[in-house]
Design goal:
By secondary structure, the chain is mainly α. It has nine helices and two strands.
Length: 195
């Protein structure tokens, strides 16, 4: 799981880049602010995040074919920061139409994938990013784990339950969601003091 300080450090590095800055920031935020897997980031099209007027929507409507399993599709509300990053990415992409991939490969415009970055390439990109910053042990799944853990810790503040986190994660089983949630020793200490 990434701390808020680590998340800020990653964004600082990505925003300092010139080439592919908008794409890379959006790719990172799709992981940490929406909990998407590498495959889901790869398969995401503009149609899944735009409304009928072609504007960035309030949600990601992830289709089953873009996710894991037969029922992996789901609706994930868009975090404000992620929404702004997606708008900046859309503004930077010429010719982005509804069936265009959100995350494009630098070499893939004429490929059989229609220009989208392959899931393995996205996973490798995350690994290279984290190693370059010195975040040993982080992978493409670290943002997803961060999203799920943060959602689990805060869901009761908005009247939700772990079942809501399960739906956001796209897990068929709550036990799978629980595997992603990191414990917090400080919170455990505080709750015991309340008993």
């Amino acid at each position: 799981m990434l701390t808020e300080r680590q998340e800020a450090a990653v964004l600082g590095v990505l925003k300092a880049q010139g080439r592919y800055r908008e794409r890379n920031v959006a790719m990172f935020l799709l992981s940490v602010k929406a909990g998407l897997r590498a495959k889901e980031i790869s398969m995401l099209t503009w149609a899944m995040i735009t409304d009928a007027d072609g504007q960035i929507a309030e949600v990601i409507s992830l289709e089953n074919k873009a996710s894991k399993g037969k029922r992996g599709g789901r609706v994930v509300p868009l975090n404000r920061v992620l929404r702004e990053a997606l708008q900046a990415l859309r503004d930077s992409q010429e010719g982005a139409v509804s069936d265009s991939p959100v995350i494009r490969s630098e070499r893939g415009r004429n490929s059989e994938r229609g220009g989208r970055m392959a899931p393995g390439t996205i996973a490798d990109w995350f690994g290279d990013l984290y190693r370059g910053i010195g975040f040993d042990g982080c992978s493409s799944h670290s943002g997803r784990r961060t999203f799920i853990t943060r959602a689990a810790r805060r869901i009761s503040q908005v009247g939700g339950s772990l079942r809501d986190v399960q739906y956001l994660a796209g897990h068929a089983s709550l036990s799978t969601t629980q595997i992603y949630i990191d414990g917090d020793g400080e919170a455990q200490r505080k709750v015991v003091d309340l008993i």
